[in-house]
Design brief:
Elements: H1 2-31, H2 36-54, H3 64-91, H4 94-101, H5 104-116, H6 122-139, H7 142-147, H8 151-173, H9 179-194, H10 197-200, H11 207-210, H12 213-241, H13 243-247, H14 253-264, H15 271-288
Length: 290
C-alpha cells in the first residue's frame, strides 16, 4: 500500500515538471500566431481523441448533479482556465505567469476551508503572507512597472482561482467514476464550453501555421502528454493523496518554468524574479508544513 502511495507521489511530481514547461510551449505557439483559444482547442481535441484510443469504454452519468459537476470541470479546469492562462501569456512573460500561478495551493486551501470546513493553521497563514510578498515582487518587476500592464497578472490570478474550483469538483466525483472517464469528460465539456467563444473571436484555420515544426511539435506535446497523460496522472494523485497534498507539488513548477523560459525563449531573469521566486517557494513550504 505504501509503495502505491509513492507511485501517486511520483505521478504528481512528474506532472508538475511537465506542466512547468507548458507555459513556455504555449508562449512559443502564441509567438507563431496561434490565439489563446486556438491553443486550448487543439490541445483538448488531441487529448480527447487520445483518451478515447487509450480508454474506449463509456459510462452512464448517475445524475444531473454529476453532469453539472462535469460541466463545471470543463469550464473551470478547461475553457475558462486555459483562456485566462494563455491570455495572460500574451501580456506577460511565461516566468511571471508561472510564479503567480504558484499560489494555486494557497487558493485551493482557502476554498477548501470555506467550502469543506478545513482549518487553516498558523503556519499556513504565515506562509501565505511570505508567498504574497514574493508574488508582489514578481508583479512589480521592472519590465512590468514600466509598461504599466497589470492585465496579465489579473488573468493569471483568475486562472489559479479556476484551477482551485476545478480541484474541488474533481473531489466530488472521484469515487463514482474512473479517472480516465473523468478526464475525458473534462476535455469534452472544455471543448463544448469553449465553442461560444469563437462567436466573439472567429476560429481561423491555417494549414501553413500547423505545418511548422514548432507548431505541431508543441501542440502534440501539449495535447498528448501535458493534457491527456498528465491530467490522468494528476486526477489519480488527487484521488489518492487529496487536494492539498497533490497541489503542493505545484510549488516547484515555477523553478521549471524559469529554467525552460530562459533556455528556450531567452527571457530575462531579473533579481526581482529570483527574489520573488525564493519567497514564493519559502512561503508555500511554510504553509504546507504540518
Amino acid at each position: 500500500m505504501q509503495h502505491n502511495r509513492y507511485l501517486y507521489h511520483a505521478m504528481a511530481g512528474i506532472t508538475t515538471v511537465i506542466w512547468g514547461t507548458t507555459m513556455v510551449a504555449s508562449k512559443a505557439l502564441l509567438n507563431e500566431g496561434l490565439s489563446p483559444a486556438q491553443i486550448m482547442f487543439y490541445r483538448f481535441l488531441l487529448g480527447y481523441v487520445f483518451l478515447w484510443i487509450l480508454y474506449p469504454r463509456t459510462h452512464s452519468v448517475r445524475s444531473l448533479r454529476d453532469e453539472a459537476f462535469f460541466a463545471g470541470m470543463g469550464v473551470f479546469g478547461g475553457s475558462l482556465y486555459f483562456l485566462t492562462e494563455n491570455s495572460a501569456l500574451v501580456y506577460a512573460q511565461a516566468t511571471d505567469v508561472s510564479l503567480i500561478c504558484a499560489s494555486v495551493p494557497l487558493i485551493a486551501a482557502i476554498l477548501s476551508h470555506f467550502v469543506l470546513g478545513e482549518r487553516l493553521s498558523r503556519g499556513f497563514r504565515m506562509g501565505s503572507a511570505v508567498a504574497m510578498i514574493g508574488i508582489t515582487l514578481v508583479i512589480l518587476n521592472g519590465n512590468f512597472v514600466l509598461k504599466m500592464s497589470p492585465l496579465g497578472d489579473i488573468l493569471a490570478f483568475a486562472a489559479i482561482c479556476c484551477w482551485a474550483v476545478y480541484c474541488l469538483l474533481v473531489k466530488k466525483l472521484r469515487h463514482n467514476y474512473s479517472t480516465m472517464f473523468i478526464t475525458r469528460r473534462l476535455f469534452l465539456y472544455g471543448l463544448l464550453t469553449l465553442s461560444p467563444y469563437f462567436l466573439y473571436e472567429p476560429f481561423h484555420f491555417s494549414v501553413e501555421i500547423l505545418q511548422r515544426p514548432a507548431v505541431w511539435g508543441n501542440l502534440l506535446f501539449l495535447g498528448l502528454i501535458a493534457s491527456s497523460l498528465c491530467y490522468v496522472m494528476w486526477n489519480s494523485a488527487m484521488r489518492e493523496l487529496g487536494i492539498v497534498k497533490t497541489n503542493s507539488y505545484l510549488y516547484f513548477s515555477p523553478v521549471v518554468t524559469i529554467i525552460t523560459a530562459a533556455i528556450v525563449l531567452s527571457e530575462h531573469v531579473t533579481a526581482f524574479i529570483l527574489t520573488g521566486a525564493a519567497l514564493i517557494l519559502l512561503g508555500l513550504w511554510i504553509a504546507g508544513r504540518k
